[in-house]
Write a structure and sequence with these properties.
- It is built from 13 helices and eight strands.
- With 310 residues, it is α/β, with parallel strands linked by helices.
- A hairpin with a 5-residue loop joins β1 and β2.
- α1 crosses α6.
- The relative contact order is 0.16.
């Protein structure tokens, strides 16, 4: 109770709180030949990169990043995928180059935005989905609510259970307190916080750190991140995992201190058709820290016929 009063008093004393992106306020994206904005039915603009052969010999792949991240985290994996597949690499609303308006940032709402993205880029059949961390909750909602649009799913260090939500995010649900926390701390030293999710921080390139850090400076970032944090209400969603019809590969770093291995083990039990693969000596970003292993596991799974027995 004392902490709650302290936080509320501090929130009340703030001169101003972060706001969402204002109408007409540009994010500064320079769209290349493979990039575009998709305007969804929710009114959001989703930055989307589409690469690879349009008539590829394999199912297209949708790439979904995690919280406080963007499409750049897939750089080590995406080129291998696009050799035979069309890749659709998005920035989820509120992150990267995508818009940061007010609205519903729950997994179910963001999954609906992804359906609009797939339609807009001409991918009307099923896709394979590869997701990381919080993006896994959005991808599970996509698989559950739109099963005809998803063939197979890879979840890496999934953030999908209510018990994973830290106290910081729970306090942020309180009116005023969340605004204070995200205004004051969300932008603090991403160059130091991001490498902490790696078992070997030296593997993190400065180019990737710079890309993540630049995205924090775009208009509306703190407020959209707060909305996304408040949207992480998984209690209802997690009761539905047992009904997922698709095969799943769960890829987990053995030293992941963000999404603990026990949550991967629980998810492998909750999903009807899932295989858990643990990568030794790796943290929360196996696709960066163990790029070769990740490519091999992912390609083998996507090219296979079943997830395999637990």
């Amino acid at each position: 109770m004392r902490l709650a009063l302290t936080l509320c008093c501090a929130a009340a004393s703030l001169p101003a709180c972060a706001s969402f992106q204002r109408p007409g306020e540009a994010l500064g994206a320079r769209l290349g030949p493979d990039a575009r904005y998709v305007h969804t039915r929710s009114g959001r603009s989703v930055y989307t990169e589409v690469r690879g052969p349009a008539d590829g010999t394999a199912t297209p792949v949708l790439l979904v990043h995690g919280f406080a991240s963007n499409h750049d985290v897939w750089r080590p994996l995406e080129p291998a995928l696009r050799e035979r597949r069309r890749t659709i690499n998005v920035d989820l609303p509120g992150f990267g180059w995508s818009s940061r308006e007010d609205g519903d940032y729950s997994p179910v709402a963001l999954a609906a935005d992804l359906v609009d993205v797939l339609d807009a880029v001409g991918t009307h059949g099923p896709v394979d989905v590869i997701a990381h961390s919080w993006g896994s909750s959005v991808s599970l909602a996509l698989a559950l609510d739109h099963p005809d649009r998803v063939r197979r799913v890879v979840l890496i260090g999934a953030w999908i259970y209510d018990e994973q939500i830290p106290p910081f995010f729970r306090w942020a649900r309180l009116p005023g307190v969340g605004e204070m926390l995200f205004t004051g701390f969300y932008h603090e030293r991403p160059d130091e916080r991001f490498p902490l999710a790696f078992e070997d921080p030296s593997i993190v390139s400065q180019e990737l750190v710079d890309a993540i850090e630049r995205s924090f400076d775009r208009p509306g970032t703190s407020r959209a991140a707060l909305a996304a944090a408040r949207g992480q209400c998984f209690l209802q969603l997690q009761t539905r995992y047992h009904s997922a019809a698709q095969p799943f590969l769960l890829l987990w770093g053995a030293e992941d201190h963000v999404a603990l291995l026990r949550h991967g083990q629980r998810l492998a039990h909750d999903l009807p058709d899932a295989r858990l693969s643990v990568v030794p000596s790796v943290g929360h970003f196996p696709m960066i820290e163990a790029a070769g292993v990740t490519r091999r596991e992912v390609l083998t799974f996507l090219d296979g016929t079943a997830a395999g027995a637990r």
